[in-house]
Structure formats: structure tokens, C-alpha cells
Specification:
8 helices, binds fe (ii) ion, three-stranded antiparallel beta sheet, Double-stranded beta-helix, alpha+beta, eight-stranded mixed beta sheet
Length: 293
């Protein structure tokens, strides 16, 4: 077990997630604390903090310790004037939830993003959990024969595989329309290794999601469809997961290179409001690797 001098780390399940305590994110963190949080994130793919009453600006200040933040764009989610990096994910009676599928954020981009920091601003009284999946555990959970088949494959990842679905239709209307069109036009289908090695840990990650992986290349269309169905079922195995119950002020920080998430859409017509930040690059990980050379 890794030792931490500044934080306490409690694994949430055998294969995925950990709770970090002994730290007050509102007060701000220092570089030593950021390095330990990063180390826990590398080990557990997603880390959770309870009872963090941070404003959007404080949430952004926390996230900036790990790398540059992306400016939020009004498209599928709302934005805020006081904190340009925060996306507001709001679901209520008029806006039913629909992120009930496994995905990693930004998988469809030419340069997928590193991390997401999500805070429960107004969680529903019951329901609205998020399920996280360790893609390192999912990879290890495949048979040796299947790993040999998949290891050198390239996947095709497509924004429109998900966003052209009927459930997403409302994003193409109203104030987010322009942002949706812009995001689509900037992100034509893109190729990524299906099983990259994690740039920091060196571990294999099964970089696959039911919603953004459009095809597995190098096999026939029917074989690709069959592999897609198998991997979708495989990644949904509870053994690779942790299911987080949110409370107001809970924060989840996940590594999009090594995890999937699924927002359980069981709370409608109740309201669920979340604040999300996107960290584009793992700048802290890169600097730690460089220092270790
Ligand atoms: Fe997401």
C-alpha cells in the first residue's frame, strides 16, 4: 500500500475508486498535496472527496494544480459567466437526464482530455449515482486470447455516434445549437489505439466505450460489431466498477484515460445539478515523469 503524508486514501472498491479525506479543498491545496492526490488518482483511476463546499472558482483553482483547464462551451451543457471553465449539467422535469451510458469524456477528440472534476451542487434526494469503471481492471479481466487479439487494434471514435441519437435531439435545438454544430465540425471520426499504455503508469487501458467507439478497425464490420457488443457487456461487469452516491459537496476527480463513467438516470423528474471542469493535459503527471528521468 502506498503511503501518503498529507492525505488519507481509502479504496472504494477492489478495482476502482478511492475516497480521499483529511484535506479541505476550499482552503486551497499546495504542491505536495496535489502530487499525492495525483498519485492516488493514478492508482485508483478516480478519487472522491466528501463535504467540499467549494465555489466554481475554488473548484477551478483546485483543478488547475493538475493541468490547464478547457473553456466551457455552451452546447450539451450550460455555462456560467463567473467561471468560464465550468459546465453546468442541469437536469430537471423539462430536461430529462440522458447520460445513462458508459463513456470517457472527450474520447471523440483528436487529443482526448486528461481529467474531469465533477461536483454535486444539487444532487437529487434519491438516485442520480454515477458508476465508474476501471479500464485497467477491464483490460486485465479479459482472457489472454482476447487480449492478444485486441492489443494492437485501432478504434474509430465518433462524437456523432452518441450525439445523433434521438435522446440527444434536444441539444441540437435552442441556445446550445451553435456549440453542438461547432463541436461536431471540429471533431470528425478519429482513430486511437484501442489498448494504449497509460502515459504515467504504463498500464494497459481498454480505451473503449459503448457510446463513442464507433468501430474496431482491422476486422470485418460484423466482427467489429460483435467485439463492440462483447466489450460493452464486459465493461459493464460490476467487478470493474464503483457506484458513487453523491451528496451535496461531493467531488469526483477522474482520469479519462483509464476510466469510464455512467450517470444513472433514475431520478427524473427530480432535479440534479452538477458542476464539471475539464483538465486538458496531465501537466503534473508529465512534470513528475520528467523529474524522475
Ligand atoms: Fe461524462
Amino acid at each position: 500500500m502506498q503511503d501518503y503524508a498529507h492525505i488519507s486514501v481509502q479504496p472504494a472498491s477492489r478495482n476502482c475508486g478511492a475516497f480521499i479525506s483529511g484535506i479541505d479543498l476550499k482552503a486551497g491545496i499546495n504542491d505536495s498535496e496535489a502530487r499525492e492526490i495525483h498519485a492516488a488518482l493514478m492508482r485508483h483511476q478516480v478519487v472522491f472527496f466528501r463535504d467540499q463546499d467549494v465555489s466554481p472558482i475554488e473548484q477551478a483553482a483546485f483543478a488547475k494544480h493538475f493541468g490547464p483547464l478547457r473553456q466551457a462551451r455552451r452546447a450539451a451543457f450550460e455555462t456560467r459567466d463567473d467561471s468560464p471553465e465550468v459546465s453546468v449539467i442541469i437536469n430537471d422535469r423539462e430536461r430529462p437526464p440522458y447520460i445513462d451510458h458508459f463513456h470517457a469524456d472527450g474520447m471523440f477528440r483528436g487529443k482526448p482530455e486528461f481529467g474531469s472534476v465533477l461536483k454535486a451542487e444539487q444532487p437529487p434526494e434519491i438516485g442520480g449515482d454515477t458508476i465508474f469503471v476501471s479500464l485497467t481492471a477491464a483490460w486485465r479481466g479479459l482472457s489472454e486470447s482476447m487480449r492478444a487479439l485486441l492489443e494492437d487494434k485501432i478504434g474509430l471514435y465518433d462524437f456523432m455516434r452518441l450525439h445523433s441519437s434521438p435522446e440527444k435531439a434536444r441539444n441540437w435545438e435552442g441556445p446550445g445549437r451553435e456549440g453542438m454544430i461547432q463541436t461536431r465540425d471540429e471533431n470528425p471520426p478519429v482513430k486511437h489505439p484501442l489498448v494504449p499504455r497509460h502515459p504515467v503508469t504504463g498500464e494497459h487501458c481498454l480505451y473503449f466505450s459503448e457510446s463513442f467507439t464507433a468501430a474496431i478497425l482491422g476486422v470485418t464490420k460484423y466482427e467489429s460489431e460483435g467485439l463492440h457488443a462483447m466489450l460493452t457487456r464486459h465493461c459493464a461487469k460490476p467487478e470493474f466498477q464503483y457506484r458513487l452516491q453523491w451528496r451535496k459537496g461531493t467531488i469526483a476527480f477522474w482520469d479519462n484515460r483509464s476510466s469510464l463513467h455512467y450517470a444513472v438516470a433514475d431520478y427524473w423528474p427530480d432535479t440534479r445539478i452538477m458542476h464539471r471542469l475539464t483538465i486538458e493535459d496531465d501537466a503534473l503527471g508529465a512534470s513528475m515523469l520528467k523529474a524522475a528521468e
